[in-house]
Amino acid sequence: MSIIIAICALGGLTLLLAIMLMLANKRLYVYEDPRIDTVEDMLPHANCGACNFPGCRPFAEALVSGQVLPGKCTVSTEDGRLAIAQFLGVDPGSEEKRVARLACAGGTNVAQNRAQYQGLASCQAASLVSGGGKGCFWGCLGHGDCEVVCDFDAITMNSHSIPEVNPDKCTACGDCVEVCPKDLFSLQPISSHLWVACKSLEAGEEVLENCDVGCTACGKCAMDAPGELITMVNNLPVINYNLNHQMKDSIQRCPTGAIVWIDEKQGVIKGRESKKIIRKGERKLGQS
User: Fold this and answer.
1) 123-145 tens-digit pLDDT
2) Phi, psi of 188 (to 5 degrees)
3) Residue 24: what pLDDT?
4) Domains of the chain by range and CATH?
5) Residue by residue, what is the 3-state secondary structure of 11-79?
């Protein structure tokens, strides 16, 4: 008899719990638009954050809810964005692609070290030891932390230990920006062709003692630029990208090539008066 009572009690408790779960499920149920799964599948699954969302799933939710337009995903192809727009019945919208840019060109052939760093091959580690040992305190240390953290193979170290960014692969995720201990990377619209490839705050010919391509703060670029396109701040030219900057006039008289024009096909273009760099090997201490 006691066994029957126990079984009935257990059965009743099970039934009660099942009813409570059914009621809770109905009360707490949150509707999720089935289109979210479809849109997520249509996205590139890069989870790069270039759209300012933490991943493709949150971005898909924002698309379906109408918070953003497909053009916000600059990593996807034009056809991919159009397909999403057609599926949702919205305008594709547009967003200019951004890429990572490095404010340094001081490779081993043009910049020298004043101390030999020995330790973990990492920019972050080297920077903790007297700034890394490079003659220019602000220059790239060349150990490739940015290359390591880039999940999209968009950054490679060239033969002179300077990172080069492949704009076709760059998703503007910002990992290189965060990892660089010298704060040399920034995310820029791909149409911003005018670029200052230096971050040294020094001025004068003394800069060239450490780097052949450093900015000497001569100000010629600011003089040649129209209006207030370029102003000198802390011995460095600062470009106002809100103004029309689609012109190469300001790079022509730069003696070191510290301010350049970045062409999507030809790459980095220096001005006509920039000193030509012919050294292929490492620049030695005291070598000019």
Assistant:
1) 999 999 888 889 999 999 999 99
2) -130, 145
3) 67
4) 38-88 (1.10.15.40), 98-269 (3.30.70.20)
5) HHHHHHHHHHHHHHHHHHCCCCCCHHHHHHHHCCCCCCCCCCCCCHHHHHHHHHHCCCCHHHCCCCCHH
Q: Quick one: which of 163, 169, 219, 206 has its CA closest to 190? A: 169
The answer to whether residues 52 and 28 touch, using CB atoms and an 8 Å cutoff, is: no
Going by the DSSP 8-state scheme, the letter that residue 263 receives in this structure is: E
Which residue, chain included where needed, has tokens 């999507």? 264
Q: How far is CA 132 from CA 57, 108, 140, 277, in A?
A: 40, 14, 9, 24
CB atoms within 10 A of CB 37: 13
End-to-end CA distance of the chain: 102
With H, G, I as helix, E, B as strand and everything else as coil, classify residue 189.
strand
Enter the pTM of the model: 0.80
270 class by beta-carbon count within 10 Å (0-12 exposed, 13-18 middle, 19+ buried): buried
Distance CA 288, CA 240 (A): 33
Task: Count other Cβ atoms within 10 Å, centred on residue 40.
Answer: 18
Tokens 């193979």 belong to residue? 153
Confidence (pLDDT) at 30: 63
Let me know the angle formed at the C-alpha of 40 by 34 and 46, rounded to the nearest 5 degrees. 165
Q: What is the pLDDT of residues 184-225, one digit of tens each?
A: 999 999 999 999 999 999 999 999 999 999 999 999 999 999
Instruction: Determine contact, residues 137/201, Cβ cutoff 8 Å.
Output: no
Q: What is the pLDDT of residues 215-268, one digit of tens each?
A: 999 999 999 999 999 999 999 999 999 999 999 999 999 999 999 999 988 899
Amino acid at 59: F
259-263/194-196 β-pairing: antiparallel
Angle subtended at Cα 281 by Cα 275 and Cα 283, rounded to the nearest 5 degrees:
65
